[in-house]
Amino acid sequence: MPQGERFIERLKAFIESDGFTRFVMVLIVANAVTLALETSASVMAVVGPVLLLFDTFVLGVFVIELALKLLVYRWRFFTSGWNVFDLIIVTIALLPASGPLSVLRALRILRVLRLISLLPQMRRVVEALLHSLPGMASIVMLLGVVFFVSAVVATKLFGADHPAYFETLGGSLFTLFAIMTLEGWADVAREVQATHPYAYFFFIPFIIVSVFAVLNLFIAVLTNSMQEMQKAELQAEEELTARQSGVLLAELASLREEVSALRKAIVARSREETVP
User: Fold this and answer.
1) Last residue in a domain, options 57, 88, 118
2) CB atoms < 10 A from the CB of 162, how many?
3) How far apart are CA 104 and CA 92, in angstroms?
4) CA 108, CA 102: separation in Å to the nearest integer?
5) Per residue in 94-120, pLDDT tens?
6) CATH number of the domain residue 28 falls in
């Protein structure tokens, strides 16, 4: 193997090692803590320069890490969505955070999201969420229909007497969304029932449909997606094990043939030596 390829292989083993991954994870967590401390004026007055220096150091390490990955993987670097995700986050941190772009300083906390790309468990959850998006689209449409119908009904029934909640279609949609979160919905319902005694015939079915039925469908779709991904991973591992077993069996059979041929050759040679 040429020396250049040997160096690339060693570099690849280094950046993929558990020690290097743990080092990057520690830096991400520590940087999250320092970024949180930067929100305190009293802390910045005491150790502000140290925190900013550490932030620059961490960003430099991230840039070096990405440069090493680009050197090792080359164009294959961009075939991994997680590598592209890391590249975008680090690129945002490198943009000048002054003038109209000063808001980008607040986006430095996005570096914490790199933990998702480093921890396999978190990656599986995100991948399962993305995998379930097609199934969730139909549920979102169903929830939208329920909200639209309920908002129109609420506006026509309660808008005149309770304009703060249901005067317009937009206001009704906002109120119904707050009710769906179950935050203070009873106060709204009691206030409406003071003028419309039978309003619970509207609120209770809406809560049952939107909260206990439709939202639980989201959980069901996500859970099913995670189970499918786990089955796919297990199936891939089984196929890999089967291929490895097949290779081992083939090598074992070839080795047996070689041993048998060598044994026959030894026996034949011994016979030739014993013949006068």
Assistant:
1) 118
2) 21
3) 7
4) 11
5) 776 555 555 666 667 777 777 777 777
6) 1.20.120.350
